[in-house]
Amino acid sequence: MEQVRSTVTNFFGRVPLSYTRFSLTQQADGDSSQVEMKLADDEEECGDHVMADNVVKHRKGNNCKGTCFKILAASLLFLTGFLIGYLSYRGRVETVFKNQEKDDGVPESSVGLDSPAETDSVPEMSNVLHWGDLQSLLSSKTDNLIFKDNIRKLTDISREAGSVNEESMALMMHNALSNMSLDKVWNDEHYVRLQVNGDSPNKITIFKNDDTEDTITPTSYVAYSASGTVSGGLLYCHYGRKEDFKTLQDLNIDFSGSLVLVRSGLISFSEKVKNAELAKALGVLIYPEPSDFTFPMSQSRTINSPFGHAHYGTGDPYTPGFPSFNNTQFPSVESSGLPKIPVQTISSEDGRKLLQSLGGAVCPSSWKVQCMLGPQLKDAKSVKLDVKNVLADRKIYNVFGVLRGFDEPDRYVVVGAQRDAQGPGAAKSAVGSSILLKLASMLSEMVKTDGYRPKRSIVFASWGASEFGSVGATEWLEGYLTTLHLKAISYISLDSAVQGNGAFSVSASPLMYSIVEDSMKEVKYPTSSNHLYPQFVKGSKWTETIVTPFTFEDTAYPFLTYSGIPSVSFRFQKDNKPYAYLDTDMDTLDNLENLVDIDVMCRSVAEFAGQMVLRLTHWHKLPLEINQYSTVLLQMAVALFKQYAALKEMGLSITWISSARGDFKRAAESLNTEFSQSDLDNKPFLRSLNDRIMKVEHNLLSPYASPNDTPFRHIIYGSGNHTFVALMEHLDLLNTDKAKFDRELFKKQLAMLTWTIQGAANGMAGEIWEIDNEF
């Protein structure tokens, strides 16, 4: 029946199949290609004879045409009658078989009418699972998964990126994937430049008024800090956000000549350092405030100095925009995101002592912290920061395994987890790596023995050097940039997913919202009988309660903002606070076991990730919701409209961007309509529609920004002068400092934003002749 339906669909379908000249060779999907007829102005063919005489040719040509039309009409009448009778017969047979299956106690979904049990003439194939059966199978398999043993093996050794131990761990991951029923397992190597501890430890020296010294020797360091020594006073600047620095600058506090003390959290280390550098601070000290984190039971509220990186970007900062394959030598360049000032982390106790030693003005009440700002110290003269990090060339590995899809193997979902860690890294990387292996094993077993037939491929990725800014993942993206945005449907990150047993939060592309929502409705919360979805909605839109912005540390971030691939990461936390021991030498399995039931939490993570993978590989139509971006763009237009009067006064208008937003909305609605009216058996047509959805994120990467100079080119979630955030910050100068507003720069920003949105709308509209653009 499927072959008959497919043949009729492709005969009358809107999208032609591939043509083979004078061939009726059966295609891979069972459809026949059509015969290509040669037409010429000076001759026509009828049977094996060519009519040379014009009059005779015309007469006989008409006879031939008449005969052909008669044959075609008779054929169509015969085919119509045959299909009506055939479908009626099959409907009766299907009812008989269904009744017989029920009588025999066999589930309806387990045996199809085209199965080998009916006839030997039908090609042999395993049972194809329906969606409900597939969900039940996934849930039953995750219920029996045990993760603790793998996590223990992964945390037994330290695995700093590029070290011998980390290379051994890559080999272990490769062997584990090779022992599964995957279609292929492979590695890729990258030669990168990392920054590591020098021979002498970094330290902070406090010069006291009585000419004595106190020395702080941290247990960790911040990669890609500038090396050197700086001395001066110490200023407290809360979390080091832009608004925190602005608050103090409005109080006429001068950062030049001083170091800055900030709390970790809310934004990345690199953003804190970038803001401090813009404020002309000499250096940065970062400490974890215990009240910002959640701790295991019966643990003291202290946190050792955490590891992090200060590169305002991702990937190897010494080959920005280029892949680092095969030790290839590129021009001597450095990322513009490398800081020019030294930075160091300290423990929570040392941070508290420094905060209490500050004098000067009282901290702003909005910070809700009882402290002084500095830069004076109560009983000390100054603070000296000495950073002695050194560069090291290292070889790192990414390890991959793939389950090839049955219909579209050249379209794939990527599921990934980082492998390296500074210290034990139980919650940071061992949990994600263990879940990655279990998912690969479980899904490959479902294909081999349970009838799971993913339409699209699934790539399992174990990343190297993620601690240094998603280096392994970013280098892979750089190496295959021109391919991945055409083939990768989405990226699902498993990193740091278990940080507690409370609140569930998600960072995701708006295209992924519907997948996230539908998956939440199916996965039970690990510590109750409720599902993830209703537990957190509580009468409001779930996107307003559990969606959090991507950070630079998130491996999913470069997938979305550099390569334009819809991405998602997620995590369980307690009281909406991150786990205190992430990125520290205290991230052990024992401490994590005192925080959560590891197997229970990992099962929920595995099932949620598995649900998303199944949805992306099972349905004919990709479940990516393009209408979500229409809402996001509307919010942007509303924010711009609030400045309408000021813009009009300067002769500027937001009409262009409003029109582009309207075109985007209409294109999204039109594409959804095409899907709703399409024949699900017309695979070429569905593929063309799916490809247009896949490219939405990529089309929102600004074509006016260089991936070398500005890698995060996404106009909404990226970083740089091309983004909507940068445009709004510039526009805010009309209210705060009008003299700094650059009219020509704003016009350029508005034009770049407008035409990027318009380009995304045109990309959704389809072929160039289908675009009715009245912009």
Describe the structure.
There is one protein chain. This protein is of the alpha/beta class. The chain folds into 4 domains: 2-104, no CATH class; 134-187 and 406-569 and 593-618, Aminopeptidase, CATH 3.40.630.10; 203-388, Glucose Oxidase, domain 1; 627-770, Transcription Elongation Factor S-II, Chain A, CATH 1.20.930. The strands form 4 sheets. Strands 3, 13, 14, 15, 16, 17, 18 and 19 form an 8-stranded mixed beta sheet that branches. The longest helix has 51 residues, at 54-104. Mean pLDDT is 83; it is low at 1-62 and 86-127.
Please outline what is shown here.
This protein is of the alpha/beta class and 775 residues long. The protein contains 24 helices and 19 strands.
Q: pLDDT below 50 for ≥5 consecutive residues: which ranges?
A: 1-62, 86-127
Q: What is the count of distinct domains?
A: 4
The number of helical segments is 24
Shape: globular
CATH topology of the largest domain: Aminopeptidase
